[in-house]
């Protein structure tokens, strides 16, 4: 991760006013036949799951396109924050497209091949040095919950539903997803969710630590914009340092990369942004950070 981080973080530039709605001066691209959309506006890259007819269920090509979109926004020097959202107002992501299972995941061999291709999403999200916000409206189930859990912050609209129905499908949920679930809600609640396949509402998800905030449906996008703007206005290296260090804290002590923590600390201390932050504080003005 840290080699990727060093190469990509040098490219951060200005862009502190994030907006999630498309406009003429924004760039946009579509992937997987338009089912994965992404655009950049004012320092924020937004990825939209655009399969509302299936409640944004993810086909294999959508998983691969999502990884490609994450990689592109990670490498984009204009992007400081990444937002994930679902189209249609009914779902964030309702899970994997079950319609593909009979062909692509009908036995152990095909399931392994499917996993090998789709796991690129886990790596793309997990290795991204930029903050990722999941903007959740509606169903967030199965693989969709994995995507949300791999984000750094989860904001949910009232009425959203969460769950992992693997036990009801006869499927084993992957290690990466269970590792995140346990880290967020603890092993006891993880067992309850996994053994029963139950769904929980946004209030319960907040209570157990699965999401960080819940807001009214009409407030979801404005609140996400506000949060993204707040993060994008801070020093990118300092934000990345927090993300890297927290990731190491969550690892077992024998697996922690303390050298990575030391390196990012040195980069922050030697950065122009650190000097700008001190000057702005003394001059009682808002700092202008450049990510270097």
CATH H level of the largest domain: which superfamily?
2-enoyl-CoA Hydratase, Chain A, domain 1
Number of domains: 2
Summarize the biggest pleated sheet: 7 strands, mixed
CATH fold-type name of the largest domain: 2-enoyl-CoA Hydratase, Chain A, domain 1
Structural class per helix/strand content? alpha/beta
User: What is the radius of gyration?
Assistant: 19 Å
By DSSP (H or I, 4+ residues per run), the number of helices equals 14
* Strand portion: 15-25%
Q: Which CATH architecture of the largest domain would you pick?
A: Alpha-Beta Complex
Question: What is the averaged pLDDT score?
Answer: 86
Q: Can you put this structure into words, describing what you see?
A:
48% of the residues lie in helices and 16% in strands. The chain is α/β, with parallel strands linked by helices. The protein folds into two domains: 13-232, 2-enoyl-CoA Hydratase, Chain A, domain 1 (Alpha-Beta Complex); 236-283. A hairpin with a 4-residue loop joins strand 1 (27-31) and strand 2 (36-41). Helix 6 (143-150) crosses helix 8 (175-185), helix 8 crosses helix 9 (187-196) and helix 12 (236-249) runs antiparallel to helix 13 (258-269). The longest helix has 16 residues, at 60-75. It is globular and about 60 Å long. Mean pLDDT is 86; it is low at 1-30.
């Amino acid at each position: 991760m840290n080699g990727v981080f060093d190469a990509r973080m040098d490219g951060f530039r200005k862009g502190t006013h994030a907006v999630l709605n498309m406009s003429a001066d924004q760039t946009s691209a579509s992937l997987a036949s338009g089912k994965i959309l992404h655009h950049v506006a004012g320092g924020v890259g937004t990825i939209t799951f655009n399969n509302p007819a299936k409640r944004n269920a993810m086909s294999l090509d959508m998983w691969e396109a999502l990884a490609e979109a994450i990689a592109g926004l990670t490498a984009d020097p204009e992007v400081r924050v990444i937002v994930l959202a679902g189209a249609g107002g009914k779902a964030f992501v309702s899970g994997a497209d079950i319609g593909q299972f009979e062909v692509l995941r009908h036995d152990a061999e095909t399931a392994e091949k499917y996993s090998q291709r789709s796991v690129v999403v886990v790596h793309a999200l997990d290795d991204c040095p930029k903050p990722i916000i999941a903007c959740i409206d509606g169903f967030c189930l199965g693989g969709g919950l994995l995507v949300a859990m791999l984000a750094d912050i989860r904001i949910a609209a009232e009425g959203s539903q969460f769950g992992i129905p693997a036990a009801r499908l006869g499927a084993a949920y992957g290690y990466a997803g269970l590792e995140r679930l346990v880290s967020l809600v603890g092993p006891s609640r993880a067992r309850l969710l996994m053994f029963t396949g139950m769904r929980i509402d946004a209030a319960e998800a907040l209570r157990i630590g699965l999401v960080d905030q819940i807001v009214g449906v009409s407030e979801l996008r404005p609140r996400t914009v506000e949060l993204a703007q707040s993060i994008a206005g801070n020093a990118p290296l300092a934000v990345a340092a927090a993300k890297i260090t927290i990731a190491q804290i969550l690892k077992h002590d024998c697996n922690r990369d303390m050298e990575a923590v030391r390196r990012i600390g040195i980069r922050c201390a030697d950065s122009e942004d650190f000097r700008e932050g001190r000057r702005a504080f003394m001059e009682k003005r808002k700092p202008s950070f450049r990510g270097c």
